[in-house]
Amino acid sequence: MSTERLRRIVEATRDAGEMSVAGLAALTGASEMTIRRDLEVLAAQGVLERYRGGARSLLLRGEEPPYALRATEGVAAKRRIAEAVAALLADGESVVLDSGTTCVAVARAVRHRRLTVVPLSLHAANVLVGAPALTLLFPGGAPRLGELALTGPLTEASLASLRFDTAVLGCCGLTAAHGVTGHDLADAAVKRAAMRSASRVIAVADSPKFTRTALAVVTPVSDLDVVVTDTDAPAAEVAALEAAGVVVRQV
């Protein structure tokens, strides 16, 4: 199953509101039988609703694709980014680890390290539970459906009561002009709380994030210390980040 084809189906149905099987087959170059199977997968993830001969989107314009779909995208790049982040952390550090698929990759990369980690999603927490050398602390809060990111006043209060060496920050969009942005307002507030409690902020973003700006502003790029991305990140954006004083590591 092609992740890129699924993404095109999600985007086309979201932009148009609904699409026919024949229209999606023409758009993607896949057979109608393949499109029907793809639609069943996406319907099971709550992305769209099937009807005879087509499907209608359940996503609003500007919403991010579901976690289950994003978790299959750019896996190799996210793994390299995660390993580079792990190399920037010293044993004994305290780290607040944001939500999102790239931050879950970071959780896998640091699982065997001697660190104190506060994960801001249950996906990352599940990776870190039982790690032998790692000290795991849980904040309070309510998990968002699907994303399982912890949000709300309990999460923000927990972060305000702690101080971290490093915050590893995920994002939905990252540009020099608009800074770090997110789709969810409550999640953006938690990201800002994590940054306020950290001495250093490392943002992780695979290259597609540099082409997107989401609704909620998290922070301008001048508040970031390091951005870790892949080698496909746009050169102009990388140069603009560096001009703003951000260290950019491409892996």
Automatic annotation (TrEMBL):
Signal peptide: none
Keywords: DNA-binding, Repressor, Transcription, Transcription regulation
Domain of life the protein comes from: Bacteria
UniProt protein name: Lactose phosphotransferase system repressor
SMART domains: DeoRC, HTH_DEOR
Pfam families: DeoRC, HTH_DeoR
Organism: Actinophytocola glycyrrhizae
MF GO annotations: DNA binding
Residue ranges of every copy of the HTH deoR-type domain listed in the record: 2-57
Its job: Repressor of the lactose catabolism operon. Galactose-6-phosphate is the inducer.
